[in-house]
Write a sequence for this structure.
């Protein structure tokens, strides 16, 4: 069973905001929501994570629905270097990470 | 500080052969993970370890074994390789109490 569901692909114009959605309707109360991104031929890299409250860091913002069944990764100004596959992941209390199939983000100059 | 390194970077095996993939980290992290990534797919957890001497099964453990004899190393073994194990294998580590995983560059394995 897929723990997270994401659109296969999205496009954004350079320097515009991007909202990447994720559904996780079977999330448990103790699962953390993580986002990672993967550039071609590289390992994933951490973007952001949260539990219940919205989170901001230098890379992005994470908006978590009140019922925690969905979340949105927000890139405030997309650059060409942000073109990657973005994964929405649930981390269990046992520290296992469950990756979805990811959203391939294309940034248009 | 090399972070997470994986050896080898590429390997081609014949069906039935065995091999071991090595993951090493120099960050003194407690947790280590092995994932596989098939074309167009996300990563799937094979096995993981929460500390030296411990291992646990992930989502897709069949056909693989692991060992964590030293804190800095996590070995992934294939005893009898099958074409279905053709994949890119990623290792990751994470410190206790922190959320961020650090990934290695991956090992591309082809089983003929």
């Amino acid at each position: 069973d897929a723990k997270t569901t994401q659109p296969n692909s999205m496009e954004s114009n350079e320097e515009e905001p991007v909202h990447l959605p994720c559904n996780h309707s079977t999330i448990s109360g103790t699962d953390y929501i993580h986002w990672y991104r993967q550039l071609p031929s590289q390992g994933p890299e951490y973007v952001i994570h949260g539990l219940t409250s919205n989170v901001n860091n230098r890379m992005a913002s994470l908006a978590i629905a009140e019922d925690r069944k969905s979340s949105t990764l927000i890139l405030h100004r997309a650059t060409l270097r942000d073109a990657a596959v973005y994964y929405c992941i649930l981390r269990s209390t046992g520290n296992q990470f469950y990756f979805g199939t990811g959203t391939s983000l294309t940034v248009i100059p | 500080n090399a972070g997470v390194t994986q050896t080898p970077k590429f390997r081609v095996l014949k069906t039935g052969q065995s091999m071991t993939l090595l993951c090493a980290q120099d960050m003194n992290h407690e947790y280590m993970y092995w994932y596989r990534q098939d074309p167009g797919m996300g990563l799937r957890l094979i096995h993981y370890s929460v500390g030296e001497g411990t291992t646990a099964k992930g989502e897709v453990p069949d056909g693989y074994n692991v060992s964590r004899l030293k804190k800095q190393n996590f070995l992934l073994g294939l005893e009898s390789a099958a074409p279905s194990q053709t994949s890119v294998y990623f290792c990751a580590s994470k410190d206790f109490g922190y959320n961020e995983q650090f990934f290695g560059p991956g090992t591309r394995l082809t089983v003929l």
Observations:
- Chain B touches chain A at residues 4, 31, 33, 35, 40-45, 48, 50, 56, 58-59, 90, 92, 94, 99-106 (CB under 8 Å).
- Chain B has a mean pLDDT of 94.
